[in-house]
Every structure is written in structure tokens, then in C-alpha cells.
Amino acid sequence: QELQKLASKHPSLVPVALEVTDPASIKAAAARVGEKLGGSGLNLLINNAGMAKPNSLDMETQESMTEIYTTNTIGPLLLSQAFLPLLKKAAQGSPGSALSCSKAAIVNISSSAGSIQELYMWGPTHVVSYRCSKAALNMLSRCQSLGYREHGILCVALHPGWVQTDMGGAGSLKPPLTVDESVRGMLKVLSSLSEKDTGTFLDWEGKVVPW
Q1: Pick from 42, 140, 27: which is nearest to 85 by CA?
Q2: Which domain holds residue 134?
Q3: For 133-170, how does the pLDDT look when each residue is reduced to its tens digit (9 = 90+)?
Q4: pLDDT tens figures, 76-129
């Protein structure tokens, strides 16, 4: 409903139905976007869908791990594969130019909670399945940067900060960042990404997050 409201105000915004855990839905979404783009390619794919469950280490389950890994890690893998032809087409439209988000890029929204070195917020919340899924997403981002560089596609993992969203604010502690602050920061980072940044893990202020 929110997307429909936005679309009514911004005619260039085209909502496309997508369930990231359903391969058929992913393929249909990619086909729909391809139709809308006509002969043009897709410059930027942002894999943003994610979920978490407040499970402690002792209470983690196979079902939770599977569900969250499917959304947070497998979803971005399949989406990137499905949209790869459109990203390649965009990159081919700018031959010779350096890697950037205006050429062709995959941005995987990750989290410093998945940083093996930082383990951000471990004390208040274990969220083990979420952390594992984001650590795996970081590896996927690194692999994509190596595998897709020859096609002219930049790939990064981006930590948006601890943000006041339904998921981020679900616990008893209040996140420090508003959605607007996080988005403004990320847009600034995306506009500055270049060849040297592909395969990196950055935060919403452009700072390097340790793996």
C-alpha cells in the first residue's frame, strides 16, 4: 500500500511484486523489470530484504537458521543471478568507463552484526541466525565482486547502521539512527563508490567495516 501511494505521486516509480524466498517470483520480477526497461539495462540492484529472530545461542533452531538464511543470503544470490543479464546490459552501455553505481552495481545490505571481528551488539542480543546469514552474505558479496568484475559490475556489502525500523527497533533498546539519516548517508556512499571499492564491506558513512 505504501508503494502504491508513492507510485501515485511519482509516475516513474513502478512497484513490482517479489517474494525473495520464491525462485519463481524472483524470475517473474526480473522479467517484469526487463519489460519495463525496454532495451535498457539495470544500473543498480539493491538487495535489501532481510529478517531476524531474537534467538539466543542456546535457543537457536534448524528451522530458524534455514528460514533466515533463505531470506538473507540465498535470496540475494538468486536475485543477483536473475538480474545479471540486465546488469550486464547496463555495463555494456558504458564500455571503458570505471566501475560505479551509475554503470552497473549490486549492493547487498548487510550488517556489522555479521562482522566476525566486531560482533556488534553481542551483549544485548545474540541473534545467531541473523549474524551467520549476514556473514555469509558478506562472503557472497566478495565472491560476486570477483565473478562479476569482468562484466563491469561493482559489488559491495553495505551496513546501514542500527536503524529505527520495525526490525531494528523491535527490542527494548532504541536504535540511534532514523531511516532518513541512514538513507541519506547510504545514497552519499553509493554515489562515491568506484573501482577501488568493489568487494568491500562499508557502512552508511563510507567507513570500512572489518570482516
Answers
A1: 42
A2: 42-203
A3: 999 999 999 999 999 999 999 999 999 988 777 666 55
A4: 999 999 999 999 999 999 988 999 999 999 999 999 999 999 876 667 668 899
Please work out, in degrees rounded to the nearest 5, the angle formed at the alpha carbon of residue 160 by the alpha carbons of 155 and 161: 140
Residues 6 or more apart whose Cβ sits within 8 Å of residue 211: 115, 116, 117, 138, 201
* Pairing relationship of beta strands 105-109 and 44-47 according to DSSP bridges: parallel
Whole-angstrom distance, CA of residue 132 vs CA of residue 48: 17
Give the CATH number, domain containing residue 63: 3.40.50.720
- Residue range 63-72: mean pLDDT, rounded: 96
Domain total of the chain:
1
Q: Does residue 27 lie in a domain region?
A: no
User: Residue 12: is its pLDDT beyond 90?
Assistant: no
Q: Please give, one letter per residue, the 3-state secondary structure of 72-106.
A: HHHHHHHHHHHHHHHHHHHHHCCCCCCCCCCCCEE
Q: Which three cell numbers stand for residue 117?
A: 571481528
Q: Is position 20 within any domain?
A: no
